[in-house]
Design brief:
The protein is globular, with a radius of gyration of 20 Å. The N terminus and C terminus are likely disordered. Helices cover 77% and strands 0% of the residues. The protein is mostly helical.
Length: 411
């Protein structure tokens, strides 16, 4: 992904993409922030909640690379159309869950399907903007994603308030309304053009004499260092997802209540907004790889600060490190992966990023529940810190491979 071109930011396209991100993260927040609350309200115990969440992540992990490979190679359906179709199926699943009796097996199947489709959409929507960036059309991805974080924070607060007044049905109503708006703005998004790289992009693409990969194993072998990089991200995101899924346990351990949950999620999300908003500036000054290493260091700092937090005030303070960890990681990883991929592999590359998130969700959901039941909150946090440190080391080693350092330093 070259940022060498001096093409001005397409403000109209950025605005439309930002609105799309806002509504997507409203849907994401309503489901993933309050999944446990919603499922508990309908008779699920902690173990059933953990399994349901893990199944959503697992199915997404399986589907994401398959869907991405199809979109990358398809000549009959565009990325925009595939995103719109996926969103439509998501909306149908949410409406069906709202309408049907709350029978346990039916709820599990539909909730897992909803989780999977939301997670599947995430890398696809990122690729929507990358298609334009790869053509030299400047879209401010960081700003749009930052506004998505703001939407996530506001939704977390408002849905929490609404649940207290109207009940957990608010979760599905919010998701359905947000998804309808996602569909509207996907259909309104400028139709993607065939990817035609700029001269600067072509000049800085990694040089390879190998044919483009046709399957997953060839794909991973084609980009040396990439598998190690992905494993490192999985370890980091396992702790991130373990923290997110069981944050209420941490809060209660230090004397807080469920009221702090929405506040902590909002603080973390709000700190992301300025960092992501100015990311396009940062990435012109510092390479995406270096920004990734900075974010890995901040993940360690945040994990350590959470472990050492002795009260609610210190815990809430630890959330500001989200600005240096997840807020940098998310756009930096998108830019980095796009920069090392050939044009025919860009959607698949983003899908593998989605796989790291979903694998982190699977492991974090199951491991976090096991550690909390078998040990204690401090032991769980120590384990999370250890995984984060190891993950950061693997990210550093994986991105140092000479094959993958031929990208543009000033992206």
């Amino acid at each position: 992904m070259s940022q060498k071109s001096k093409a001005p930011v397409d403000h109209r396209l950025t605005i439309r993409y930002a609105i799309l991100q806002v509504f997507y993260w409203m849907a994401f927040s309503s489901i993933f922030t309050y999944a446990a609350v919603y499922l508990h309200d309908h008779g699920f115990d902690n173990q059933q909640v953990g399994i349901t969440l893990a199944l959503g992540y697992l199915t997404a992990m399986i589907i994401q690379p398959v869907a991405a490979a199809f979109v990358d190679r398809s000549e009959t359906i565009s990325l925009n159309q595939f995103c719109a179709l996926t969103s439509s199926v998501l909306l149908a699943a949410v409406l069906t869950l709202m309408a049907l009796p709350k029978v346990f097996p039916v709820m599990v199947v539909l909730f897992v399907l909803i989780e999977m489709l939301i997670l599947l959409l995430q890398p696809l929507l990122y690729s929507l903007s990358l298609n334009f960036i790869n053509q030299g059309i400047a879209v401010n991805f960081g700003l749009a994603r930052g506004l998505g974080s703001g939407s996530f924070a506001l939704t977390s607060l408002l849905v929490g308030i609404a649940i207290a007044r109207f009940g957990t049905s608010v979760v599905l109503v919010t998701c359905a309304a947000s998804t309808m708006l996602v569909i509207v703005f996907i259909l309104n998004f400028k139709a993607e053009q065939p990817i035609t790289e700029t001269i600067s992009e072509i000049a800085h693409r990694p040089v390879s004499q190998k044919p483009l990969p046709e399957n997953t194993l060839q794909f991973l072998a084609h980009y040396p260092g990439f598998p190690l990089f992905l494993v490192g991200l999985v370890l980091i995101l396992t702790n991130q997802q373990m923290f997110s899924n069981y944050q209420i346990n941490i809060i209660e351990h230090i004397g807080g209540t469920s009221k702090i949950l929405g506040m902590a999620a909002a603080i973390a999300a709000i700190t992301e907004i300025p960092v992501m908003g100015y990311f396009s500036f940062f990435v012109r000054k510092v390479s995406a790889r270096k920004l990734l290493l900075i974010s890995a260091a901040f993940f360690i700092v945040k994990a350590l600060a959470t472990l050492l937090a002795a009260n609610v005030g210190q815990f809430l303070f630890s959330q500001i490190f989200q600005a240096g960890s997840y807020a940098i990681y998310l756009p930096a990883s998108v830019y980095y992966v796009n920069s090392i991929m050939h044009s025919g592999d860009t959607v698949k590359g983003q899908a593998f990023l989605g796989v790291t998130f979903t694998m982190g969700g699977i492991i974090g959901s199951l491991l976090g529940g096991f550690l909390l039941d078998a040990t204690s909150v401090p032991v769980t946090l120590i384990a999370g810190l250890g995984m984060t440190v190891l993950g950061a080391i693997l990210v550093y080693v994986g991105t140092r491979r000479k094959d993958q350092t031929t990208m543009v330093e000033n992206q």
